[in-house]
Structures are given as structure tokens and as C-alpha cells.
Amino acid sequence: MRYPPLLTDFYELTMLAGYFEQGMTRKRAVFDLFFRKNPFEGGYAVFAGLEPALDYLEGLAFRPEELAYLHGLGLFKPEFIEFLREFRFRGTVTAPPEGSVVFANEPLLTVEGDLAEAQFVETALLTIINFQTLVATKAARIVRSAAGAPVIEFGLRRAHGPDGGLSCARAACVGGVCSTSNVQAGMIFGLEVRGTHAHSWVQAFTDELAAFRAYAEVFPAATVLLVDTYDTLHSGIPNAITVARELRARGHELRGIRLDSGDLAYLSREGRRMFDAAGFPGVKIMASNELDEFVIESIRAEGGRIDMYGVGTRLATASGVGGGALGGVYKLVELAAMPRMKVTSDLAKATVPGRKRLMRVYGAGGEMLQDVLCLEQDRLTAGDTVYDPAHPLQRTVLPAGCLLRDLRRVVMRDGQRNEPPEPLFTLSARSREELDRLPPGCLRLINPHRYKVSLSERLHGVRNELIGQLHCREG
Ligand SMILES: Nc1ncnc2c1ncn2[C@@H]1O[C@H](COP(=O)(O)OP(=O)(O)OP(=O)(O)O)[C@@H](O)[C@H]1O
Ligand SMILES: O=P(O)(O)OC[C@H]1O[C@H](OP(=O)(O)OP(=O)(O)O)[C@H](O)[C@@H]1O
Ligand SMILES: O=C(O)c1cccnc1
């Protein structure tokens, strides 16, 4: 997929023109992309958007018509427009595998390259990673609430525009959603496309039974009937049972029904009882109607008998407390081999300078214990003391017998991917497996346990030293 180079904020171009005039374009720069708060006030995030981000970086090149547009703005010198003609991304990107479970304040992408290219890609990387990570996280929360019942993404009509709908379908898949109603996403990303029918289908016929019969005639092997247009228990389900009998007489089984209003726990229990009593235990019950992780949890807690969930609005718009947008940022952490840092009076908001590695610490059973940021040359082992970046007096010792793994790897060198893109089902399997290794308290929807992301002793020291130097300079 091509992401045009003008998919950026104007200031990236003005800074680029400035670096060009100041002779600074070739200074080596390192940027970290990270977010400061887990979305949805949750205990984790699912990292998504890496492959599209790499597509963007690999394909970054200005077309003649894009250069002509910039020239027409009347602000940029012809030499700069000529510089843009050959402008490419030739840097290095380090990242966790897509679908990994990640946490606030961890560098997701680290981009290293000439200052010109590493700075310019900020906005596009943020728009890709922020949205997809947010939606993948929402999807994972919903999928875990559904406890094994498949979740279908129905969000296109309520998404933030056509491109939001497309990215949503992809990211939802990374978070574990099994299929989508978005046909374009099906074709582009190879996702399974699924659907039922609308209320208007029922309204288009003289009566509900006629509508159900007509649909079953066209799709005898794949019929899911929407039963709530008039009266779910007194009309919709009895009519669906009639059609199920007629289909069976023709050698087919009704696949399912969809409930789209009312008390979904109660209606699904009643529906299950009616289909079982009529000899159709295999008919699946799907629910939709403004579902999210909390509604699904509530339906299950009430003994609802839902076999699959269709989730649209609240997934595509990533709504809910702490949702709506992921505040990922892109910060300069090293320039010309010198660590850089943004200091604020709030230690939690101060960046962590320099090139770093992100280590994941596992217990003997493969369970995730905590993550540690360290210097590239650090060799962390069990017994090392690590520090809470926001509360340095809080420290922990890595337990005996723990295993350490470098979570990130170089995924792009000299502007070229190191490996071919991974299939989406690999990414969704990864997010599921990693979430199974998280301490269960981190998966809680409300007041989750805070997973530790610490600094190694040496990185903690470097950061303190830099804070001291910056204070001296300003004092
Ligand atoms: N058992 C349940 N537990 C928790 N929330 C539920 C349950 N059943 C349905 N809901 C949710 O309640 C919300 C509103 O449902 P409500 O019945 O008020 O609306 P509705 O059925 O769309 O109404 P109508 O279509 O008649 O205007 C929806 O978000 C739905 O997902
Ligand atoms: O509730 P969501 O999670 O957003 O899921 C998508 C919704 O979109 C459809 O409603 P709509 O009223 O647009 O059309 P319909 O006539 O097919 O119900 C569908 O019936 C769902 O209720
Ligand atoms: O196929 C469906 O049932 C569907 C598709 C999009 C939105 N709501 C429902």
C-alpha cells in the first residue's frame, strides 16, 4: 500500500528545509516512538501497525506532482525542492514484532538515520502506529471478554472515515478479531469476510417469514437471520425455526440468528432454549448492538448464551475511558552520538536518553515478570538491581532463574526491510500467546495491575547524570 510523502504535518517540511539550509541534514539522529499511558486505563497495549509503517518508509519518495505542489506554495527554495526529488528513507528501524504486548514508556520504534529523514517520518509513523495499536488493544480486550467466542468486526459504517475503517479491520485482526464485514479490507489484507443482513432486508418483504425464506433460498448453506425487526421472541425466533426446518428438509442447516436489541443475555438464553427444544442445537446465536468488552463481560456474567459477537462502533472508534486516541510521541534521544533528553519537573514525563535495548524478563514457567530498558552494551542478568523510572527509590532485583529476552530487533536497515512481511494470522497468534503470559492482574478491565517497566542501573545512572547537567546549564 502506498502512503504518500505529503501524509505529514507541514512543520516536518519546514524543519526539513531548515536543516537543509543549516547544513544539518546529515547529522546522525536517533528517535524513539512511545506512548506514556496504556490505552483504556488498561494493563497493556498490543503493538500494531509495524508492517504498514515499514511500507511507508520503504516507499517514501516524492512524485513530480507532489514536488510541483510544494513548489507552488511559494515558500520553499528551488534547491530544496531538488533535494526532495532524491529524498528517501535510508535509516535503520528497531521494533518488537508486530502483535507483541507492550507497555507505556517503552520505545516501540527506534528510528536511526540522518536527521533529515529520521525527523521527517515522525507524523506518518505516529498516525499509523497510534491508531493501529489503539484498535488492536481494544480488539484484544473485547476478544478476551468474549472468552473464545469469535468476534467479527462490523465497524466500517461508524469508523472515522474510509481509511479509518480499513486500518481498523487490519488492527482488529492483530488484536484477535477473526473476521470483518469490510470487503475492501478482506481483499487488501486477506481477511475472512462475514456478514448477516440488515433490518431493511426484512422490511423489504411483505412479512418477516417471507424475508427469511428468501434469504435462505439464496444462501442455503450460510444463512444467519436477524430476528429482532418486529418481536424477537414472538416473531423473529419462531420464524427462524420455521426456516430452519424447511432448510433441513432440503439438506441444509440454518447457520444462526443475530440479536441486535434488547437484553442480550435474556434473549440469548431464551433463544437457545427455543432452538434446542425445536431440535436445532447447532444454530449459533450472534449478538450485536453497541457491544464492547464491558457489555460482553456483563452478558456472560448473566449466563448469556452468545456464540459469536459482531462489534462495530466501539471497536472502530476505540471508545471508552482512556480510549479515543493513543498519545504516542516521537522524541529525539540522540544526536551526533550525544544522548538527548527532554526534562520536565515530572520525572515520569522525562524521556529516557540514548540508544537502548528493551529486555523482557520471564519466570521459569515462561510467564512475563517485567520489562527493563538498558543501554545497548549492558549485559543484564538475574540478581541485577533495576529502577522505576518515575520513582527511582523503588527498585527491584531480577530474580534467580529468570530468563531475559531482547524484545526488539532491527527490522529495517538502510531503508530496506530485513524480512518479508509477516502474515496477519501470525500477528494475531502472537498477541494471543503473549497475553496468556501476562500476570492475570494486568488483564483486568478495571484497575489492572501495573506491569513494571524499569531502567537498568547504568541507564538509570546515565539519565540522572544528564538531568544533573541540564539543570546546571539552565540554573
Ligand atoms: N445483558 C446485558 N448486559 C449489559 N448490557 C447489555 C445487555 N444487553 C444489552 N446490553 C447493552 O445495552 C445497550 C442498550 O440496549 P437497549 O436495550 O437499551 O437498546 P436497544 O435494544 O438498542 O433499544 P432499542 O433498539 O429498542 O432502541 C446496548 O449497548 C447493549 O449492547
Ligand atoms: O452496534 P455496533 O457495534 O456499531 O455494530 C454495528 C451495527 O450496525 C448495524 O446497525 P444499523 O442500525 O446501522 O443497521 P441495521 O439496519 O443492519 O441494524 C448492526 O445492526 C449493528 O447494530
Ligand atoms: O453483516 C452484518 O450483520 C453487519 C455488518 C455491518 C454492520 N452491522 C452488521
Please describe the structure with a list of short key phrases separated by commas or semicolons.
475 residues, alpha/beta, nicotinate phosphoribosyltransferase, TIM Barrel, 2 domains, seven-stranded antiparallel beta sheet, seven-stranded parallel beta sheet, 17 helices, binds adenosine-5'-triphosphate, binds 1-O-pyrophosphono-5-O-phosphono-alpha-D-ribofuranose, binds nicotinic acid, ligase, nicotinate phosphoribosyltransferase activity, EC 6.3.4.21
Please characterize this protein's 3D structure.
The chain has 17 helices and 22 strands. By secondary structure, it is an alpha/beta fold. It has 2 domains: 10-135 and 323-474, nicotinate phosphoribosyltransferase (Alpha-Beta Barrel), CATH 3.20.140; 202-283, Alpha-Beta Barrel (TIM Barrel), CATH 3.20.20.70. The strands form 4 sheets. A 7-stranded antiparallel β-sheet has the order 14-13-1-5-3-20-21. A 7-stranded parallel β-sheet has the order 8-7-6-12-11-10-9. A 6-stranded mixed β-sheet has the order 18-17-22-16-15-19. The longest helix is centred in the first third of the chain and has 25 residues, at 122-146. The protein binds adenosine-5'-triphosphate, 1-O-pyrophosphono-5-O-phosphono-alpha-D-ribofuranose and nicotinic acid. Residues 261-265, 289-291, 295, 298-299, 302 line the site of adenosine-5'-triphosphate. Residues 154, 157-158, 198-200, 260, 288-291, 310-314 line the site of 1-O-pyrophosphono-5-O-phosphono-alpha-D-ribofuranose (PRP).
